[in-house]
């Protein structure tokens, strides 16, 4: 988690002059508001297992040391993982699980539930379940960087860094500068290969970093650093495709409602060739001076 602050602070210094004209008259950079955090989380689909009444299935986990019981709701990052878990439940206890189903939810909705529950005496806990593939990829990245690590706690996000100061790389999307954080190691790797071809001067310094989603959300809530507002989450392709399908179905069922009216409407795609340019490129650095 420390790396996200170190790299980000470096980017904030590099980008300071670029943004200085926008910050004139501002006394301080504020942490993201709840509304801004919700907007960033809205395009990300996660999956819960719900009963026939539409309620999320909750497990009670006993803590023997503290002599207490915690209520936990599983939040799956992958629809397949959620379905596999439900199928296992149906095999082990068909009478209980046969009427259950996997339901897609916006990560923004889950975040709101977490915030509403956090100060309650018997708060509901949310356990995020990342895919094994991405956790294994995160461990590989960290070990290749020299860290002696045996497990990764949380949902891994992958981001590119490069240049002499190993800053996180930003991309240009329309008139916005964004820092893409990917849920998929394969997609960030593909982005790295594209950048190497377009900007060979960055090739030798490019590397993939990994940070936990949970740590990023805490940073959005508590840290007053301008660069954090530029981060955008790029869901895995299966999640983006499902989101498009759901939005299309909603539009067909309610043609008078614009797609943008749904909180999950922004379908985040990886930056495309004609949209993305790392801020660490010589041309962009020149523009900052």
Automatic annotation (TrEMBL):
- GO term, biological process aspect, one: protein transport
- The annotated region (Disordered) lies at 250-289
Compositional bias per record (Polar residues), positions renumbered to this chain: 250-259
Q: Highest taxon of the source? A: Bacteria
In which residue ranges is the amino acid composition biased (Low complexity)? 262-282
* Gene3D superfamilies listed in its UniProt record: 3.40.1350.100
Could you identify this protein by its name?
Answer: Tic22 family protein
Q: Which InterPro entries match?
A: Tic22-like
């Amino acid at each position: 988690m420390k790396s996200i602050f170190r790299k980000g602070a470096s980017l904030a210094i590099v980008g300071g002059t670029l943004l200085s004209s926008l910050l004139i008259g501002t006394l301080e950079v504020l942490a993201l508001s709840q509304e801004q955090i919700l907007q960033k989380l809205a395009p990300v689909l996660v999956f819960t297992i719900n009963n026939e009444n539409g309620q999320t299935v909750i497990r009670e986990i006993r803590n023997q040391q503290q002599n207490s019981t915690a209520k936990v709701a599983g939040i799956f990052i992958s629809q397949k993982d959620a379905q596999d878990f439900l199928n296992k439940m149906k095999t082990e206890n068909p009478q209980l699980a046969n009427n259950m189903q996997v339901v897609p939810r916006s990560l923004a909705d889950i975040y709101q539930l977490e915030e509403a529950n956090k100060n309650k005496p018997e708060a509901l806990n949310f356990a995020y379940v990342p895919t094994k593939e991405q956790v294994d990829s995160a461990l590989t990245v960290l070990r290749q960087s020299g860290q002696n690590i045996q497990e990764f706690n949380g949902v891994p996000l992958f981001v590119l860094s490069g240049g002499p100061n190993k800053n996180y790389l930003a991309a240009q999307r329309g008139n916005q500068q964004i820092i893409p954080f990917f849920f998929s190691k394969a997609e960030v790797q593909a982005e790295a290969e594209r950048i190497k071809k377009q900007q060979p001067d960055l090739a030798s310094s490019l590397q993939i970093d990994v940070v936990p989603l949970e740590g990023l959300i805490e940073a959005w809530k508590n840290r007053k650093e301008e660069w954090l507002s530029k981060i955008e989450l790029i869901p895995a392709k299966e999640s983006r495709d499902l989101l498009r399908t759901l939005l299309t179905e909603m539009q067909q069922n309610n043609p008078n409602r614009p797609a943008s009216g749904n909180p999950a409407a922004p379908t985040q795609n990886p930056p495309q060739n004609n949209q993305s340019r790392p801020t660490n490129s010589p041309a962009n650095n020149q523009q900052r001076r």
